[in-house]
Amino acid sequence: MELEAYIGEDDHASHARAGRTARTAPMFGPPGHAYVYLVYGMYDCLNVVTEPDGRAAALLVRAVEPLEGIDEIRNARRARARSDAERGRIDALPAARLASGPGLVCLAFSVTRADNEADLCDPGSSLRLERSRAGDSIEGSRIAVSPRVGVAYAGEPWISNPWRFFDPDSPAVSGRSAATVGAAPATRL
């Protein structure tokens, strides 16, 4: 799992920096709901809203390491492929890399903007958070932090804030290695 925090209207890397708009309204609460948006005109990205009503904050789900349902996840990715060559690349991917980026998370789990504002805490929701089974949790000492990815436009201190959280041992971590992301190396909690 890999997450990035976006906190409030003062966070220059956050969509909330421009205040509440039709697009960002879900980010302003309630907590436990999805904020799904389109980036680069082609990729949906899933966020989990984290603050009470009126306070904009969310965690971007950057990567997920699939532990079960690999065939379903691979098929979901294949269904959105544009060519046989792309389907072949998806077929060759190790399971851990099937959801190793924010857009890939949505492709792998068939999350779309239709899921925007879904109650992720509702056990009856098709998109929901579930408690880990015993033995599946990550111990705190294995959670690493680093600056967020791709927020250079926000300026300091927003570039260097250590608001990216991930399992440094997971092959699903997106993008560049933890040691090369941002201005500071990753540290463990």
What's the gist of this structure?
With 189 residues, this protein is of the alpha+beta class. It has helices at residues 70-79, 84-92, 102-108; strands at 2-7, 34-39, 43-49, 57-63, 144-146, 164-166, 187-188.
Question: Would you kindly provide a written description of the structure presented here, covering whatever features stand out?
Answer:
The chain is of the alpha+beta class and 189 residues long. Helix content is 14%, strand content 18%. Helix 1 packs antiparallel against helix 2. The chain starts with a strand and ends with a strand. 33% of the residues are buried.
Question: What keywords describe this structure?
Answer:
189 residues, alpha+beta, seven-stranded antiparallel β-sheet
Number of helices: 3
The low-pLDDT segments are 177-184
SSE class: alpha+beta
Using DSSP, what is the number of strands? Answer: 7
* N- to C-terminal distance: 15 Å
- Mean pLDDT rating: 90
Strand order of the largest sheet: 2-3-4-1-6-5-7
Strand-residue proportion:
15-25%
Rg measurement, Å: 16 Å
Give a short account of the largest sheet. Answer: 7 strands, antiparallel
Helix percentage: 10-25%
Shape: globular
> What is the chain-wise order of helices and strands?
EEEEHHHEEE
Write the layout of secondary structure elements.
Blueprint: E1 2-7, E2 34-39, E3 43-49, E4 57-63, H1 70-79, H2 84-92, H3 102-108, E5 144-146, E6 164-166, E7 187-188
Antiparallel strand pairs: 1-4, 1-6, 2-3, 3-4, 5-6, 5-7
